[in-house]
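Hey, sorry to bother you again with one of my protein questions. There's a protein on my desk that I can't quite get my head around. No rush at all, and the record is pasted right below.
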Amino acid sequence: MLIIPIIAAYSDSGITVTVEIPKSAPEVFAAAKKRVESGVSESGITFTVTDIDEDNYLIKVEGTETKWEARFTVVPVSKNVSQIIATGTDDERSHEESEQLVLQGVKNLCDDLGVRYKVITND
């Protein structure tokens, strides 16, 4: 069984998470849209969807109780392979929230799509 690496890079200003998965961009984007519809993460962090760009496979969200933003982009690599690039930026008070939401969001999406993964960080 193939295990895909999820790369999570932390910096002072936030987090960038990337993963390349064996699924088409439309399939990945549809699953991502479904996941953000509720406006609440599984850990209880609330957010507002500020943009869904169907043409560019882009979703933007921001925190409703604290100040942070996240971007989720699906990049078609080939017909059945896509790269997910997710970034989170924040102020000091909400650093953990944006990190948790971005990384957990990518992990949840991989779970939804049946993709096995291992998280690799620079932490």
Q: What stands out?
A: Strands lie at 4-11, 14-21, 47-53, 58-63, 68-78, 81-90, 117-121. The chain has a mean pLDDT of 87. The helical segments are 25-36, 95-112. The chain has two helices and seven strands.
